[in-house]
Design goal:
The complex is a heterodimer of chains A (254) and B (81). Chain A is built from eight helices and ten strands. Chain A is of the alpha+beta class and 254 residues long. Chain A is globular. The chains are: A alpha+beta (254), B alpha+beta (81). Chains A and B meet through α7 of A and α1 of B.
């Protein structure tokens, strides 16, 4: 059987935890198949006991919980290259749901293959472990964001993070990225009302930090956006591997 | 669901909602205006002495429906005795 190419993950691991060609071949051989998902599909639901991990190859998903009154808190956005439910391998039951925000392609890694990796390929296991630790670092930043920053800072930080995550897997043109997020998605992620998200995005645009069209976001002034969000890419564990990514488009170092 | 626009006013700085939202009805729009006003207030009030904030709701045809308003003021109290 032909294994799917895991290009976005391999690109990410190049910065995070470089694997050898043989290790990449082994990792690719663990993916049994790929699956297409429609936009706005719950791919994992709270209470599920999955038997596969999902590696996102194309599209955007969000991790969320629903409150009893129907409001939603998004805890993370995932971009291609993320194994967005690696933890499902060891946790008994999912305590949150994962939903596609665009049409997506995922590669399925059976939990049996995860057992095989952890028992026989400790370096690949460490790479996946490190990736989950970066997820945890992102959660820490989001807590600081939602708990202490203004809406203007929150959205600036979030945009910087999403941009860098696209950039390292080759999904930016250096200046712009696909932008499928609705204002409700951003509000649910940043703990803000849609009214305030709308107003704050307009402020970011008016100050020239970003420009948006219906489906793309373009960086207007990266340095100003980084300052506005107090963004330091170190928590993504990528800056040392490739210093340029903390300041795309040849902006001056800080 | 009907479409509503939420324009905001921060003292004299007016921001027109360029997108709007679909909500179940006028009551939901009123509550969304209140949430937006509370978010705005949380960001801008600390450090202020006086501030006038409002969120003005318009319907799909951009006809004004209601405004949620907040007047903020720090009053210095004289120490007696």
């Amino acid at each position: 059987m032909h294994s799917p190419h895991l290009t976005p993950l391999i690109q990410k691991l190049r910065h995070l935890f470089p694997l050898t060609a043989e290790e990449i071949r082994i990792l690719e051989s663990t993916c049994s198949r790929t699956q297409r998902l429609e936009s706005q599909t719950d791919t994992v639901c709270e209470g599920d006991r999955p038997s596969n991990c999902n590696l996102l190859l194309e599209g955007i998903v969000c991790r969320y919980v629903l409150l009893e009154d129907g409001r939603r808190q998004i805890m993370s956005f995932h971009t291609p290259g993320d194994i967005f439910d690696a933890h499902s391998f060891l946790l008994d039951e999912m305590d949150h749901s994962i939903r596609t925000l665009t049409p997506c392609t995922v590669a399925l890694i059976p939990h049996t293959a995860m057992i095989e990796i952890t028992e026989n390929h400790p370096r690949i296991a460490r790479a996946i472990w490190k990736d989950t630790l970066v997820d945890a670092a992102i959660f820490r930043q989001w807590i600081a964001n939602i708990g202490r920053r203004s809406a203007y800072q929150r959205l600036a930080h979030l945009i910087c993070e999403i941009f860098i995550k696209h950039d390292i897997v080759g999904l930016s043109d250096g200046l712009s990225i696909a932008w499928p997020f609705t204002q409700m998605d951003l509000g649910d992620a940043a703990g803000l009302s849609v009214v305030h998200v709308n107003r704050t995005l307009q402020e970011l645009r008016a100050k020239g930090l970003i420009a948006t069209t219906r489906d793309r976001l373009t960086i207007g002034d990266w340095d100003a956006l980084v300052r506005a969000g107090e963004f330091n890419a170190r928590y993504l564990q990528l800056a040392e591997a490739r210093p340029g990514i903390a300041r795309p488009f040849g902006a001056k170092p800080h | 669901m009907p479409h509503y626009y939420f324009d905001t006013r921060d003292n004299d700085w007016f921001t027109e909602d360029d997108q709007g939202q679909e909500l179940p009805g006028d009551d939901a729009a009123r509550d969304e205006a209140s949430r937006g006003l509370a978010d705005l207030a949380k960001d801008v009030l600390p450090g202020c002495i006086r501030r006038q904030l409002s969120v003005e709701v318009r319907d799909a045809a951009r006809r004004p429906l209601l405004a949620a308003r907040l007047t903020f003021e720090i009053a210095r109290l004289s120490v007696s005795g």
